[in-house]
Structure prediction request, 129 residues.
Amino acid sequence: MGDRTHLLSAVSAAMEAELRLLDPAVRSAPALMAELLHPGFREFGSSGREWDRDSIVAALTAKGAPGPRPITTSKMKGVQLAPDLVHLTFDTDSNGRRAHRSSLWRLTEKGWLLYFHQGTPFTSEDDAG
Prediction:
C-alpha cells in the first residue's frame, strides 16, 4: 500500500505543478515560470515551434506580448515512469484553440520540474474518432 500511496503522491505533485504552470498569473511572471522549468527544458509547441527554457519564459513574459489567456484543462491523467519521472497527458482549450498535451516532470532537489512538453492541436472532428 505504501508504494501505491507514493505513486499517487508523485503523480498528484506533478499535476499540481502542471496546473500551477498553466495559471495566467504564473505564466506572466518570469521568476514564477522559471521555478517550474527544468534547466534542460524543451517543448514542441502546438504551433510547431521548438522552445527551450529561456525562450519560452522570454516569449510569454515579454513586454507587449498578449497577456496569457485562461486555459481550460480536461482528461488529465498521469503515470510514474521512474522514482523521479512522471508523465502527464491532458487536453487544453484556450479560447477555442484545443490541443492534446504531454508533459514529463522530473523530481529534483528543487521539487518537480517540467523537463519536456509537447502540444498537438486538434479539432472537434479529430476528437470524434
Summary: Residues 14 and 112 are 6 Å apart (CA to CA). The first helix runs from residue 2 to 22. The longest strand covers residues 97-108. Helices lie at 2-22, 24-27, 30-36, 53-61, 124-127.
